[in-house]
Amino acid sequence: MWSAAPWTRRAALCCVLLQTLVHSSGGLNMCMSGSTTSCEECLLIHPNCAWCSQQDFGRGWMSRCDFFTNLLKRGCENRFIEFPSSRTSILESRPLSSKGSGWTQYDVVQIMPQKISLSLRPGGQTWFGLQVRQVEDYPVDLYYLMDLSLSMKDDLDTIRNLGTKLALEMGKLTSNFRLGFGSFVDKNMSPFSYTADKYQENPCNGYKLFPNCVPTFGFRHILSLTDKVDRFNEEVQKQMVSRNRDAPEGGFDAILQAAVCKEEIGWRKEAYHLLVFATDDVPHLALDGRLGGLVQPHDGRCHLNDKNEYSASTQMDYPSLALLGEKLAENNIFLIFAVTKRLYVIYKDFTALIPGTTVEILDQDSKNVIQLIITAYNVSFNVSVEARSCPPRGTDQSFTIKPVGFKDRLEVSVDYQCDCGCSQTAKSNSSICSSMGTYTCGTCQCEPGYLGARCECQEGDSGSMYLSACREAEGKQICSGRGECSCNQCLCYESEFGKIYGSFCECDDFSCARHKGILCSGHGECHCGECKCHAGYVGDNCNCSTETSTCVSDDGRMCSGRGSCVCGRCQCSEPGAFGDTCEKCPTCPDACGTKRECIECRLFNSGRLADNQTCQRLCKDEIITVEMLKTEDPNAVLCLYKTDDDCVMKFMYSEHASGLSVLTALKEPECSRGPDALMVLLAVVGSILLVGVVLLAVWKLVITIHDRREFARFQSARSRARYEMASNPLYKQPVSTHFVETDFNMFGKSYNGGVH
C-alpha cells in the first residue's frame, strides 16, 4: 500500500530548508514585510509563515508573524506556534488486479489508491502517487519513431530484431498488439544539413569513419501499424543512417506527423496508443526554422506525400511544445522519450510542458528499450495539488481523476486549513484586553472606538503620556513625521508612492535604491528603506545576479578560464580576451591550442573532439580551407602544429567584425618527404665517378699542354739546326762508306774482307 507519510515529511523538510535559506541569505522576509494583525492573515501571506500566540511575546515592536525557526530563536515556545502544513491521507487503496488473481470484469482494479483526503494550506502543495494498469488483452498500438542520424548507427544494429522481442514481451500483457516504424533526421536545408551538390546523394561524402549513407530527410513513415512482426524486422533491416549538419535533430517534426497522420499510421480508435521516440540528441524547437528562412509556423496538419515522407519539411517551421501537447492529447497518444543519460534532464523538462509524456534513460546500445515500453504500459504518476485561496466557510470541495480509457477513478476530498487552532480558545471581553476586546492568538481584537495593544484607550485620546510612546527615540519626530499618535500607537498616513508602516511609521516600501528607474531592479522588495533581494540576486539595488550558468563557455569552463563571473557576466582578466564568456582571444597563449582541436575534428575527424556531436557542439567557428595561407592580416594569428604523421598543419585565427571567429586553414598538412636511399647511393656513386672523370680530364689536359710545349721546343730546335747547316762555311758534308764482303783464297787460306 502506498503511504503519504514520506511525502508529508519531505514537504515539511523542504519548507524548513527554504526558511533557513531565505533567512540566512539575507533575502526578503515576506512574513514580516507587512503589518499583519491576526493569525489568519499571517497564514495567508505565505505557506512558510508561522504565528506565535504566546501572550508575553511581541512586546514592543516584534512581529508575531515570522518563519518557524525565527520564532523559536526569538523565544516563542513550540506549543504556541501555529504552523499548519498540507497533508495527504489514504482512505482506500486496494491493490491493482493482475493475471491469475481471480478477478472478474466487475471487481477489476486499474487505479490505486481509490480514495484519498487532502488537507491544504493556502499556497502550500502536497503530493500523492497514482498507479494505473491496463486490463488484460486491452488493444495496444505502438509506433517506434527512431532517430536515423549518423550518431545512431550502433542503435540501428541493435533494434534489427526488436520487433520479435517486443512482441514476445508485450504478449505477456496483451494478445492484441500491433507495431509500426518510422524514422527522422532533420530538414534537408542549410544550416541544418549539408546542401552542397556532392552531399545530395551521400551526406557522408568525405567522412572517413563512415563514408556512405542515405540522403538527408525530415520524417519518413516506413511501416504502418501491423500485427505481422516479421514485417517490422524486415523494414528495420533495410534502413541505413543519414547525416545532418548541426547537433539538434528534427524529431518534433516527426512526432507531430506520427500523431496527426492517423490513417497513414493506422492508429485504432479503441486502442491504447504508445509512441516511442528514441534519440541521442536535443530537438529543434519552434523558431529554429527561421535560421533557414522558414517563417511560416507549423499548421499542425498531416503532410505525408505518396512516398510517405514529410513533404512540408522545408516549408514550415518546427512545431512548438504547445502544439505538440495539443495534438498528442487530441489523438490520445502516450509519448515515451527514450533518450541517453546526458539528455535526461532536458527531456524531463519537456514532460512538464507536454501533458501525457514520460522520459526514460536509453542504454548506450538501446538494449533496454523493451523494458522502457513495458514500464510505460504500467503507468504511475506523481500528482501535485495546491490551494491558492480559501473558499467560503463551510464549502466542501472534491474532484476525481480518471485516465482516458479506464473505467476506474480516484476520488479526492479536500478541506482547507484557513483557521488557526488558537482561534478556538478566543475569550471575549477578556481582562487582558481591558474588558474592551476579544483575546485571541496572543492579541486583542478591540471593540469599536477602542485602541491599543490591550484596548486600553479610546479613539481621540492624545495625552502627553501617550505621545512619548509614539517617538522612536528622544528628540525624534512623533511617528517619524509620517503619522498621528493615537492612544499610545502611531496611525501611519497613506502615500501615493506606496505603504508606510512600522511602530513609529519609520518604514515604507518605496524609499529604496533603484536601477534604471526600477525599484530594487525588479529583483527584490523594498523593506524599510532596504532592498531585500529575491533568491539569485545580491547588491544594494538587487541588480547583481548570482547565476553563473551564463558565464560557462562551451567547453564547460567558467569564462573560458580567462576571467571571473561578476553579476552573471564575465569580466575578462586575460589581456586580449573578449566575448560573452571570454572565449575570443587571438593573442592568448592557448588560443592556437584551443582552435587546433576544432581544426582536427572538423577537417580530419581526429583529436580529442572527434566525436561528431561533441565537435559540432563545441566548434561553431567558421572554417575556411585554402591552398595557400596569406599572412598579411595584422589582426590574425598564425598557428601551426605537428600532426601524428610528422606533417605540419597551418591555420590563421582571426575575429570578424561581426563577432564571428574565423579559422582559415590549409586543405592538407604540409609534409616533407624523407631521403630516398637509392637516390642517395646513386648520387654518391655518380659524384665519385664525376670527380674521377673531371680529374682524368684535368690530368689529360695538363699532359696535353705539356707535350705540346715540348714538341714546340723540339720543332724550334730542329729549325735552328737546319739553318746552321746551310750557312756555316766550316761545315762539310758527311761521307758515307760502304763495305762489300768478299771471300777469296790465298795461299791456301780463306779470307773474308770488304772492298771500298
UniProtKB/TrEMBL annotation:
Gene Ontology CC terms: cell surface; focal adhesion; integrin alphav-beta5 complex
Membrane topology: Single-pass type I membrane protein
Disulfide bond positions: 39-49, 42-76, 52-65, 204-213, 261-302, 390-639, 418-422, 441-479, 446-455, 457-470, 485-490, 487-520, 492-505, 507-512, 526-531, 528-559, 533-542, 544-551, 565-570, 567-615, 572-582, 585-588, 592-601, 598-671, 619-647
GO biological process: one example: cell migration
Superkingdom field: Eukaryota
Signal peptide: 1-27
Keywords: Calcium, Cell adhesion, Cell membrane, Disulfide bond, EGF-like domain, Glycoprotein, Integrin, Magnesium, Membrane, Metal-binding, Phosphoprotein, Receptor, Repeat, Signal, Transmembrane, Transmembrane helix
InterPro entries listed in its UniProt record: EGF_extracell (IPR013111), EGF_integrin_1 (IPR040622), EGF_integrin_2 (IPR057073), Integrin_beta_N (IPR033760), Integrin_bsu (IPR015812), Integrin_bsu_cyt_dom (IPR014836), Integrin_bsu_tail (IPR012896), Integrin_bsu_tail_dom_sf (IPR036349)
Keyword Transmembrane helix: yes
Domain Integrin beta subunit cytoplasmic: 700-747
PANTHER family, per database record: INTEGRIN BETA SUBUNIT, INTEGRIN BETA-5
Function: Integrin alpha-V/beta-5 (ITGAV:ITGB5) is a receptor for fibronectin. It recognizes the sequence R-G-D in its ligand.
Quaternary structure and partners: Heterodimer of an alpha and a beta subunit. Beta-5 (ITGB5) associates with alpha-V (ITGAV). Interacts with MYO10. Interacts with DAB2. Integrin ITGAV:ITGB5 interacts with FBLN5 (via N-terminus). ITGAV:ITGB5 interacts with CCN3. Interacts with tensin TNS3; TNS3 also interacts with PEAK1, thus acting as an adapter molecule to bridge the association of PEAK1 with ITGB5.
Protein name (database record): Integrin beta
